[in-house]
Specification:
- By secondary structure, this protein is α/β, with parallel strands linked by helices.
- The protein has two domains: 131 residues, Four Helix Bundle (Hemerythrin (Met), subunit A) (Up-down Bundle), CATH 1.20.120.420; 214 residues, Translation initiation factor eif-2b, domain 2 (Rossmann fold, 3-Layer(aba) Sandwich).
- The chain is 39% helix and 17% strand.
- A seven-stranded mixed sheet has the order 6-5-4-7-10-15-16, with helices on both faces. A four-stranded mixed sheet has the order 11-8-9-14, covered by helices on one side.
- The longest helix is centred in the middle third of the chain and has 31 residues.
- The radius of gyration is 20 Å and the shape is globular.
- The relative contact order is 0.11.
Length: 356
């Protein structure tokens, strides 16, 4: 499987997902400005992958801070952290990763600044490595919901390209396939940037999983015909009550699934759950430029010049439409999700009891 990102000679090598599936190219990022542009311009996308790239950006930024005093070093990093945080507002992994790197720096207070700088590159690598293991764990829990012969619908791309590797929504599919289950996947094309068409269908084909690409407005018809058994999607931010922000169009899929009595699952690493937000009404929804709607992949104009466009990048699916949220600690009903934020032995017992 193609790597989403990796370190090479002190550079963050970021797979250019805008070029996929026709070209496999990497962008060598030598400073945090370049990692920030990769996030903002969607060369890298998907909440976990955004978080990993931000962690790499912090390490690159630290390398260029001249102060050898700890407080001066931290202050010198602030402009980079602010720039990275401003790149995309919806994916909570962005702030999660930056907060983790800040806490790591504080934990090394009293150590030489040059030692901290070197350690930040290692910490960013740990963020990447841990993400892959988290995804595999999500896959193991989620595979239990996929029966032999199942037909799965997914929306947008929550595969290995949206993460450090292996994927979130696609992880249960991969594990099910590795277990010998015969499965097939329907991938929504995902307008306007066609992540389902360009990315999900490509990577599932690379993995040898039977995939069929459909237009976004076909999902309901296939559900009504009885050709879809379950839905699995990812999330960019899930609130404490189980409301799910994901790529625009996810809400419609969830409503259609409910109407047709089809289970709707969300694959969510705990880093994508924002326990500070009570509900999805508080999640900031990114709106992007009109050109993405006017054009197909920036090359073919499909709308009359001058027409007004709205380009919401995400929507929020209320928890009542979600059958279960699959995390690395197990699958839970939305109303039990808050238990994952609790501490202590009683919390562990409650989590074990609530796990599906």
């Amino acid at each position: 499987m193609v790597k989403t990102m990796y370190w090479e000679d002190g550079k963050a090598m970021i797979l250019d997902q805008v070029a996929l599936p026709h070209k496999v190219e990497y962008i060598p990022c030598t400073d945090y400005h370049m990692t920030g542009r990769c996030i903002k311009e969607m060369n890298v996308r998907g909440a976990p992958a955004i978080g990993i790239t931000a962690a790499m950006g912090v390490a690159l930024a630290a390398r260029d801070v001249s102060s050898q005093d700890h407080d001066g070093f931290v202050k010198g990093l602030e402009p980079a952290l602010e720039e990275l945080l401003a790149t995309r507002p919806t994916a909570v992994n962005l702030r999660w990763a930056i907060d983790r790197m800040k806490a790591f720096i504080e934990g090394m207070r009293g150590r030489p600044v040059d030692e901290i700088k070197a350690a930040l590159f290692e910490e960013a690598q740990r963020v990447l490595d841990e993400d892959i293991e988290i995804n595999r764990s999500i896959g193991r829990w989620g595979s239990a919901f996929i029966k032999d012969g199942a037909r799965v619908l997914t929306h947008c791309n929550a595969g290995s390209l949206a993460t450090g590797g292996y994927g979130t929504a696609t992880a249960p599919m991969r594990i099910a396939s590795e277990e010998g289950k015969r499965i097939s996947v329907f991938a929504d094309e995902t307008r306007p940037l066609l992540q389902g068409a360009r990315l999900t269908s490509w990577e599932l084909m690379q993995s040898g999983i039977d995939v069929t690409l459909i237009t976004d407005n076909s999902a309901g018809a296939l559900m009504r015909k009885g050709e879809i058994d379950l839905v699995i999607v990812g999330t960019d931010r899930t609130s404490r009550n189980g409301d799910v922000a994901n790529k625009i169009g996810t809400y419609m899929v969830a409503v259609l699934a409910k109407e047709n009595n089809i289970p709707f699952y969300v694959a969510a690493p705990i880093s994508s759950i924002d326990f500070t937000m009570a509900s999805g009404d508080e999640i900031p929804i990114e709106e992007r430029g009109q050109d993405e709607v006017y054009n197909i992949c920036g090359s073919l104009m499909v709308a009359p010049e001058g027409v007004k466009c709205r380009n919401l990048a995400f929507d929020v699916t209320p928890a009542r439409y979600v059958t279960a949220i699959i995390t690395e600690k197990g699958a839970f009903r939305p109303e039990d999700l808050h238990l994952l934020a609790e501490q202590g032995s009683n919390a562990e017992a409650a989590i074990e009891k609530a796990r599906l």
